[in-house]
Amino acid sequence: MLDRIRRLFNQFFTNSRTINNEPLNQVSLIVIILVDIFILANVFTGLNDISSWHISPSEANPCYSEWKNYRLQNSKDKDYDIIKLSLPYDVNTPPIFKESYQKYYQKSTLGHLGNVSEICLNYAGYKDKIYSQENTQLVKNIDQKQTKINNLEQANRNIRNQYDSTLLEKIADQPTGQSINSVSAEKAKQELEKNSRNISNFKTEIANLKNQLIAKPESNSFLSFIKDEGQFGIVEQKYQQASFWYPSIQLAFQALFLLPLIVVAFSIYRLAQRRGYGLISLINWHLLVIFFIPLILKIFEFLQVGVVFEFLFKIINALLGGLLFLISYLYILMIPIIGFGIIKFVQKFILNPKVQAANRVQKSCCLNCAKKIKRNDMYCPHCGYYQYNECSNCHNLTYKHLPHCKHCGHSQESNL
Fold first, then answer.
1. Which whole number is the average pLDDT over 98-120?
2. b/e for 165-187, b at 16 or more Cβ within 10 A?
3. Cα-based angle 174, 178, 179 (whole degrees, multiple of 5)
4. Which of 67, 81, 213, 316 is the most exposed place for a label (fewest CB within 10 A)?
5. Domain for residue 381, yes or no?
């Protein structure tokens, strides 16, 4: 097995830096590497673009995260907070995103596959009804009053911090003009009481404004909708299903992008090999490598987050409870097996020794390193590889890897 892998890597690097068994000069090799980097960058760009062709779970269910956050909140103002999200900050601006929420939710489907959840579109419709100049002005008034409360509370903290030093200045009979504090000891208590009364008044006004906004018919309809457990349950189920299948959909589209490129590059590579077009063969060999690298990376990435991972997660969780670290053991076993399968595929279809041997025998080249040798050489003088096998029928020496004996024509499948 190790010898086979070593030969595979030797063949890989030989194909990557030779034209008709002649090594590339350094300038040509640098040019090819630069071209490879440019193409590889564009391949990853294309993969990124096509992976977003189908809308994501959050785009298909745009109301899910906002709705879920509302359900998880325990604050008394959560009804007001979610209504506030439906309103733009500036009363003079048009609706948020300069269009309705329904149109904004549907924007993700333009030029993409997939549809937005009908329930989320209804959710957006209720939010659109909340938007009005009056409601926006209410929110703006509340924010302004809250800002005043914050300023008054900060002023009270400053007064309390200065109060002790003010008392010391008074005890020491320090002149008022030389005081480092803005409020005298006599006025500090009055200022604190006045600010506290104003804070209390502003809080009462804010509470009334919030109740006024929540009591509006459009707000009541929206709150009734989002408190419907059945509606949220459907959205949550669709979001989870979409999240489960989305990595598989992405891999399918990425494979759809790469496989035609691989097939075309491989076909031209095989044709160029048969006809001896060295430069074309070298270029398409590099293209094959470039196209296979992201495909292999995406497959391994999919194994970590896709359907396979979810399947293993559920099995381990059902059988062994919390021993989910065993998934790592499974991956440690699976990844080498998958890597072995990729090596076998490459060796059978791309670096197939039978196909290479036929071409190399015709050109009097070594079956292993592809360098020129004399026709009757038993061993390659360049790499030391033995060129022949004994025929199982006539027992004469015949070429390795070729399907029939050159003396009697007997099948050599058992020797290959």
1. 84
2. ebeebeeeeeeeeebebebebee
3. 80
4. 81
5. no
